Amino acid sequence: MEIGIIGLPNVGKSTLFNALTSGHAASSNYPFTTIEPNVGVVQVPDPRLKRLAELFPPRKPIPATVKFVDIAGLVKGASKGEGLGNKFLSHIREVDAVAHLVRLFNDPDVAHVMGGVDPARDIEVVETELALADLESLERQAEKLEPKARSGDKKAAGSLALLNKAKAALAAGKPASSAGLSAAELREFSLLTAKPALFVGNMDEGPDPESVRRFEEAAKARGGRSLVLCGKLEAEIAQLAEEERAPFLAELGLSQTGLERFITAAYGLLGLRSFFTIGDVQVQGWTVRSGAKAPQAAGVIHSDFEKGFIRADVYAFSEIDRCGSEGELRAKGLVRSEGKEYVVKDGDVCFFRFSA
Q1: Which end of the chain, N or C, is less packed with Cβ atoms under 10 Å?
Q2: Is residue 321 within 8 Å of 56, Cβ to Cβ?
Q3: Rounded to 5 degrees, what are φ and ψ at 176?
């Protein structure tokens, strides 16, 4: 499950990626420093995991993870091959969702490829290029489907009808995700603007309220979720030792880093849920998509668990947090036995029973 960080060149994508992953992706004040995408696996911050480790010592907490991809900057004309063009767009097609980073900071030492800070314009440039690429892709796909549909192929006719709905939305200046099609229907066409989007404003340490306001309005107009952070500050925080971060944040009047808010929002953007398992040596967070049933969740841990699934013993994190022990939960009848049709909920603690 991958989230691609996209945007114009020189908006701070590699700086943000490095802060997220404690990585060493190249960053500079020149466009296209990133060519091949950088990939990093990031732990999802979840205080519930720490609490479970306290309730079941000395087990080690192992968080759920999500993968981030730092993708090269896009420029106006990318859909026609400008900049890195099709190479950039192909990297976006491979991710499950996009985090669109928008420049809100002023820095004369870092060139702005569009001339100055204007979040609404910058968002429109990127979104337009994605939409133009999608329209071109749909034209090519329609050319293949139309002859089959005319010959009476019902499957092709159905696909063509869905395609035309997506095409109409794009022609009206809206993303394919607004066409009223299901995620499964959109997946057939592999469209860039069908992917869930999170808009992230990269601001100065002393933010300009007007730039932030214009950014949030532009993101809202496109139906996306948004948040703002200071990439430069987040990079500095990421270099601090773990025990130094909380006091530093307290001085700033913050309870969470911007990165923690970003990771949590991106995780939710994909419709992901966390469940937990408690083993002999560790308490671990796992990731499933919303709506996943118990056998699918078991399969995340090991494919054999899904194949031989019998049942799952389940209780909610809120219940163990309140009761303090599994013994107390069992005494109160709060440990449930669930079968193959059980839909795993966020925060469930599961023990899977299966046959080898």
Answers
A1: C
A2: no
A3: -60, -25
Distance CA 313, CA 194 (A): 37
Helix, strand and coil content of the chain, in percent to the nearest 5, comes to 45, 20, 35
Q: Which two tokens stand for residue 100?
A: 């669109």
Rounded to two decimals, the pTM is: 0.82
Hey, which residues does 68 pair with through a beta bridge?
3, 40
Dihedral sign, Cα of residue 141, residue 147, residue 148, residue 154: positive
Based on the number of CB atoms within 10 Å of its own CB, is 35 exposed (0-12), middle (13-18) or buried (19 or more)?
Answer: exposed
- What is the rounded distance in angstroms from the CA atom of residue 271 to the CA atom of residue 265? 10
- Dihedral sign for Cα atoms in the order 182, 188, 189, 194: positive
Pick the CATH number of 2-268 from 3.40.50.300, 1.10.10.10, 3.40.50.360, 3.40.630.10: 3.40.50.300
pLDDT of 193-245, one tens digit each? Answer: 999 899 999 998 887 899 999 999 999 888 778 999 999 898 888 888 888 98
- Domain 291-354 class? alpha beta
Phi, psi for 343 (deg, rounded to 5): -90, 120
Q: Give the dihedral of Cα atoms 211, 212, 213, 215; nearest 10 deg.
A: 80
User: Domain limits of the chain?
Assistant: 2-268, 291-354
Alpha helices in the chain (DSSP H): 13-21, 47-55, 85-93, 119-150, 154-171, 183-187, 209-221, 231-238, 242-251, 258-269, 294-301, 303-307, 317-323, 326-331
Integer Cα distance of 224 and 219 in angstroms: 6
